[in-house]
Amino acid sequence: MKLYYSPGACSLASHIAFVESGEDYQKEKVDLSEHKTESGKDFYEISPRGYVPAIETEDGLLTENPAVLTLLADRFGTAPEGRDRYKMLEWIGFIGTEIHGAYGPLFGGAEGSEKEAAKQTVEEKFKLAEKLMDGGDWLVGDKPTPADNYLFVTTLWAEKFGVNLPRTLQDYRARHKERPAVQQAMKEEGLG
Ligand SMILES: N[C@@H](CCC(=O)N[C@@H](CS)C(=O)NCC(=O)O)C(=O)O
Known about the structure:
The protein has nine helices and five strands; from the N terminus they run βαββαββααααααα. It is α+β, with helices and mostly antiparallel strands.
């Protein structure tokens, strides 16, 4: 498989899953401001949506975090079974639409009161995430799934935009940073 990614973007969640799997894979960086790949291709020609993550599989291109993260969890044996599988999907939906979505104005360059309002919305979503986690170390079960990788990436964005994180999510972020796969994927993306 091949991962199209951009440093520090939501594709880092998939990148961590690839590293953690220990499987062979390829990756190519995408400059999202130009929608050009590292090898000079127009990314829209590869993926009309123009978003990362995008993965090339034997069956063609797959995009959208819920699909990509679930496929990787299935392939790499990190998908929980039974009801927990749906709990993982529930989290991926919540993270994508509620948390990632709430960052939209911040990624869009909002300033002043618009920026402050967006930060407040993101903070409220994190408070809700904290409540839903109910004191657990990971989102589902006793080990991280790709849903955790995704939530982790959004906690990194909190650092970037000066969003206040609840204490338990600061600890959650720190727990991820101890994972060797997280350290390696971040290093490969040039993140500190
Ligand atoms: N609906 C997509 C959104 C993914 C997304 O927002 N990707 C961002 C990076 S985190 C991106 O590629 N943005 C490029 C752009 O806006 O053109 C998904 O869930 O995968």
